[in-house]
């Protein structure tokens, strides 16, 4: 008799459950027994799919970046690279809202349930910036951004966007400086700071908002098990 094949749905469920427990209750909440029970499987499933708890935590982090890369990949390349850059920012924010439990773990404590991210693990995460770096290069080539290092521009965009998203997830941004207000203004400010003119930056950011629903939001639906407690941001 051939060995029974592992169920990919069980694998995804284990990742989402582990991420939620880490985000909501911390590393002390992780145990193969509890994770398996919530997934409706045996404790052996953790070892079958991941080789143990450390392997599961590593896959939680990797899965988070894979989902982010999926959102990035939906942004089409157009003749307005600044609008494309702004839409990548919207995709980043939308991913964080749609996969809040994964996002918290991706950028959380350096030690997770006895597991520490290696430089290789972090490089895996940095690789998702490839689209952002390429788009920054296109903005520079189009003379919308001042001459510079596209990689540095991409990192500046990442740092600023991550900061806003982290505050939004923590529910620190409230009226009159709510997340939507801060987001739209920050996107324009980032483009102007990179060298674009205020009027063209404003128009491009607005255009990215018009493209969001058809390119990013409607293109991907997060797995049901990944749905966060709060509704995903419209990013409009």
What would your notes on this structure say?
The radius of gyration is 19 Å and the shape is elongated. The longest helix is centred in the first third of the chain and has 21 residues, at 53-73. 65% of the residues lie in helices and 2% in strands. It has a domain at 57-220: Tetracycline Repressor, domain 2. Mean pLDDT is 85; it is low at 1-5 and 219-236. α4 packs antiparallel against α5 (81-98) and α4 crosses α6. It has a two-stranded antiparallel sheet with strand order 1-2. The chain has helices at residues 8-25, 32-39, 44-50, 53-73, 81-98, 100-106, 119-126, 130-141, 150-169, 179-193, 198-217, and strands spanning 111-112, 115-116. The protein is built from eleven helices and two strands, in the order ααααααββααααα. With 236 residues, it is mainly α.
């Amino acid at each position: 008799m051939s060995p029974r094949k592992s169920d990919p749905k069980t694998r995804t469920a284990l990742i989402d459950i582990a991420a939620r427990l880490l985000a909501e209750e911390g590393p002390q909440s992780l145990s193969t027994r509890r994770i398996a029970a919530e997934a409706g499987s045996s404790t052996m499933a953790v070892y079958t799919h991941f080789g143990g708890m450390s392997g599961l935590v590593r896959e939680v982090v990797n899965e988070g970046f894979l989902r982010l890369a999926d959102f990035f990949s939906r942004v089409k390349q157009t003749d307005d690279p600044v609008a494309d850059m702004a839409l990548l920012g919207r995709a980043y924010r939308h991913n964080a809202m749609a996969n809040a439990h994964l996002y918290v773990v991706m950028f959380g404590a350096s030690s997770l349930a006895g597991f520490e991210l290696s430089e290789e693990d972090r490089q895996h995460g940095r690789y998702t910036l490839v689209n952002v770096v390429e788009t920054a290069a296109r903005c520079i080539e189009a003379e919308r951004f001042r001459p510079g290092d596209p990689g540095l521009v991409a990192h500046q965009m990442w740092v600023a966007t991550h900061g806003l998203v982290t505050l939004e997830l923590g529910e620190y941004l409230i009226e009159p400086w709510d997340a939507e207000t801060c987001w739209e203004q920050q996107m324009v400010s980032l483009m102007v700071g990179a060298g674009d003119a205020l009027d063209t930056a404003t128009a491009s950011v607005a255009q990215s908002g018009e493209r969001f629903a058809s390119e990013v939001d409607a293109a991907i639906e997060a797995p049901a098990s990944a749905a966060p407690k709060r509704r995903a941001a419209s990013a409009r």
